[in-house]
Amino acid sequence: MDDDDGALSPEETLQLIERQQAVAARRLTPDPLLMYAPWGLAWMLGFGAFFLTYGLDGEPILPISWKLALAVLVASQLGAGAFTAYVIWRQNIQVRGESTQRGMMYGYAWFVAMVSMFMVAARFRPMLDVDEIGLFYSSFSLLVVAILYMAGGAIWRTWSMFFIGVWTAIVNTVGVALGPGWHSLLIAVLVGGGFFATGVWLRRQA
């Protein structure tokens, strides 16, 4: 038998290389649904609690204080952040280099930005009316989220990440103009739902 009989043709070699590249890309790229869905759930839970606190006409739907709603929002954000960090860590555990360092610095930026935001907000809280405190905290945190998503999209040249940051900033701004109840409803539905939709769409594209 000729030794060349078992050799791959140029077309078969190219197909093999493309398949291997696709497998490597899937292993090195986090599942987009796992990256976006936890945040979508966090916005739905946190701002759903705020919506129950304020209602659309200023009358609470359920007797939930803004402090309890804020606690739900913070807890859901921390949970989403921890889960996302775990997914990224598991995905990149065998990866080293510039991209890993960039991701690490970006993760630290989230932590520092959120801690700083709550410390600054606490300084101004006594100056606000009780009805405005929850809106101040929630809109301030979403502004930080929107900026970090846009920055992340620019760092990794990911348009979907950049646009979700733009969308969050727009909905947040419109909601603040309409008032606490509308802000909570719009964020829970449009931003929370937008994160879920983005995760599903990106997974289908992949």
Would you write up a description of this structure?
With 206 residues, the protein is an all-alpha fold. The protein is 82% helix and 0% strand. The protein contains 7 helices and no strands. It has helices spanning 10-28, 32-54, 66-91, 98-124, 130-156, 159-178, 180-205. Helix 2 packs antiparallel against helix 3, helix 2 packs antiparallel against helix 7 (180-205) and helix 6 (159-178) packs antiparallel against helix 7. It is elongated and about 75 Å long. The model has no long low-confidence stretch (mean pLDDT 84).
Keywords:
206 residues, single chain, 82% helix, 7 helices, mainly alpha
User: What's the assembly state of these chains?
Assistant: single chain
Give the helix level as a range of percent. Answer: over 70%
Major sheet, described briefly? none
Structural category: mainly alpha
Q: Which outline best applies?
A: elongated
β-strand amount: under 5%
- What low-confidence regions span 5 or more consecutive residues with pLDDT below 50? none
Number of helices: 7
Separation of the first and last Cα atoms: 42 Å
User: Using DSSP, what is the number of strands?
Assistant: 0
CA radius of gyration: 22 Å
What's the order of the H and E elements?
HHHHHHH
- What number is the mean pLDDT? 84
Task: Produce a short descriptive summary.
It is built from 7 helices and no strands.
